[in-house]
């Protein structure tokens, strides 16, 4: 289980680091998008700050997820971004093929697995006392 945990941490962290840096230095080709998805991304970019803010949060969250002792903090940072990505892919990109569903599956699997493995830390975080 430790190896699976390490692989998921490295994969999830690397994905977010790469996509985060791509928001500043575009080195990956733009994937096919539906018109609604393209409008959504264009609106985020046109704000002038939100695209870069998400990039910074993705990079920092990815680095924190890779480090074993800071995985929970990284998941706290990345969970709202992951939820948004899942909704974006599920509602705006579902018609382009199986790729969005594979990414949704990977994000859900890795995030839930990493969070479940650290459930004792989450219980301490959300104690009412």
UniProtKB/TrEMBL annotation:
This protein's GO CC annotations: membrane
Keywords, alphabetical: Membrane, Transmembrane, Transmembrane helix
Keyword Transmembrane among UniProt keywords: yes
Transmembrane recorded as keyword: yes
Classification via InterPro entries: DoxX (IPR032808)
Record lineage: Bacteria, Pseudomonadati, Spirochaetota, Spirochaetia, Leptospirales
Membrane disposition: Multi-pass membrane protein
Compartments it resides in: Membrane
Highest taxon in the source lineage: Bacteria
Transmembrane annotation, as ranges: 7-28, 40-65, 72-91, 97-116
Protein name per Swiss-Prot or TrEMBL: DoxX family protein
Cited Pfam families: DoxX
């Amino acid at each position: 289980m430790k190896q699976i945990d390490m692989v998921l941490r490295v994969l999830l962290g690397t994905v977010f680091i790469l996509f985060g840096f791509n928001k500043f230095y575009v080195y990956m080709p733009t994937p096919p998008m539906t018109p609604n998805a393209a409008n959504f991304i264009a609106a985020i970019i046109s704000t002038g700050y939100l695209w870069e803010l998400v990039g910074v949060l993705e990079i920092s969250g990815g680095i924190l997820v890779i480090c074993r002792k800071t995985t929970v903090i990284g998941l706290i940072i990345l969970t709202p971004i992951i939820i948004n990505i899942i909704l974006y892919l599920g509602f705006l990109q579902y018609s382009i093929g199986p790729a969005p569903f594979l990414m949704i599956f990977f994000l859900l699997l890795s995030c839930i697995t990493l969070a479940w493995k650290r459930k004792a830390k989450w219980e301490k975080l959300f104690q009412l006392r």
